[in-house]
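Build the 3D complex.
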Amino acid sequence: MRQPDQGALVLGIETSCDETAAAVVTAGAEIRANVIASQVDLHRRYGGVVPEVASRQHVPAVLPVVDTALREAGAGPESLAAVAVTRGPGLVGALLVGVAAAKGLALAWGVDLVGVNHLEGHVYSARLEDPGLAPPYLCLIVSGGHTDLVWVEADGRYRLLGRTRDDAAGEAFDKSARVMGLGYPGGPAIDRAAAGGDPEAVPFPRAMLEDPSLDFSFSGLKTAVVQFYRRARAAGKEPPLADVAASFQQAVVDVLVKKTIRAARETGASRVAVVGGVAANSVLRRDMAAAAARAGLALTIPRPALCTDNAAMIAYAGYHRWRLGHRDDLSLDVRANLPLETGAGAAQEPAGAVANPTG
Amino acid sequence: MLREPDLETATRSAEETRALGEALGRVLGAGAVVCLVGELGAGKTVLAQGIARGLGVREQVTSPSFVLIREYRGRLPVYHMDLYRLACPAELEELGPDEYFYGDGVTLVEWADAVRDRLPEDHLRVELARPAAEAGPQPAGEDENVRRVRVWARGAGTGGPDHRGYLERLREAVTTC
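Done.
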């Protein structure tokens, strides 16, 4: 195996949902290029991600996005150590586009192919932000599809501490935004609408705070927003949107912050990372920073562009998998529900296990 | 226009909705398709969690909105679809729905009305609604946790999965508990 220096380059490709993205990242966590062709405007018209639209739009976008990333990085295919690509979780049709492109490019260029778990990409986004961050650390992954508290033991070794029992936090933002008459995606829309609002105006529920587990539940909060509006409209007095949005947002943030701090206490963690699309939320960033400071925890939250879906995190996670000796062949498949545990790669296989028994 | 429901009952809490789902899950057989209909927050996912539990699924059943479908293993395979994000029925095809609908597992479909014409003729339709919501303004203290649950068995039921039989066994379970 070629020993990587800090300048080794990895191309990352990400098409798991509504962004077609490619990036070039070095072994030393330097982002040389990070390109995103977003379909958000397209999906906004429908009020959500439309899977067929998602995969169809990825097809014409993926190769130009890769070309742009390589050009911006000033990198030719010969300088790449590997092509890393998201293989799940996500929308199957959308994932297939990225994986097919990555296979073709890896084959044509004669470089290694590495399949990456999208959630592992989010975990590594914290280390793109802070290359000094090293395991073990506690990681809250909070996005449209996930709300997971994960203990990062080592590169590629994860332990799930808690997760949502129903809706993800980002899903609660999207669905509640729709009830509030706000657009898609719901996270940024509610964040904007909440500016100047009173976060104590409506006492929305903080679910699972009394529960001894580290699990979350956001389905009841969504229902509470629906019921709140019904009651308010029936009574003919609808409160200012800013107050409702701020109150909803505070309810989500309070639970995320309290459970994360509790998890840090229970695991004895001294370092905490918060990643995923919801980590771009301004109130979550503010309140988590304050709570971490009070608890004496070092906190890393990536800049917003690395919180939302991007390929730089896929490239960097791919680099670490590649460094640990993980390679995929052209039989690499996609999985809509790929869990973080099995995406962890060679380092997590028990001693003597064969990584690919059929290959 | 829908005919009168084959079964009508009510639950007073999320726990009761889950228990009703569990009773239904216990009587379902291979090839069953259960459509879950109701507005945001009506309790579709809660009912689906109960059905999965009744089918012996031990894993946590979470909302499939993000990935459209999640699969579980109980005494039968359980496919949990959520079509909330679909903008038009044709987009269902990307999931290869017939492999689920006519497979050997149980398929639960949330927001099924988005693809009404694409569903198998034989299925159970379960509607969840808040009586409080339909009656307009309520006096203070009205219990908003109450759900009216209405079930229809659809199709001829000849040869395929016996949806009418599932419904009758659910009726026995509901009336004896």
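Confidence is low (pLDDT under 50) at residues 342-359 of chain A.
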